[in-house]
Amino acid sequence: MQYYLACFDVHHDRLRYRVVKELMRHGFRVQHSVFELAMRNTTQMRRLRGRLNGLCRRYEDPANIRFYRMNGNTLRESFSLDGSEIMDYPAVIVV
Prior knowledge:
Largest sheet: 4 strands, antiparallel
CATH class: Alpha Beta
Radius of gyration: 14 Å
Distance between the termini: 13 Å
Strand content: 25-35%
Strand order of the largest sheet: 2-3-1-4
Structural class: alpha+beta
Number of helices: 3
CATH architecture: 2-Layer Sandwich
Number of domains: 1
Mean pLDDT: 86
């Protein structure tokens, strides 16, 4: 399993809705434009990138979508002020 923190800044309302919909298929929304994602493999991430690139081209929006790879150390050292779990996913995720 590969874990990512995804954040975005999208200007076009309809594109923003579609970006959120795509990201929700792979993880959880933790803030308005921030998601924690769990990807099974690099192929799944490559497909997500392709879909998001296609959407941005379609809407001609210079969307700023960033993915930060998280490993075991960064997950263990991460925390939330309200005490909620960071990347608290089950061992198996069915997508």
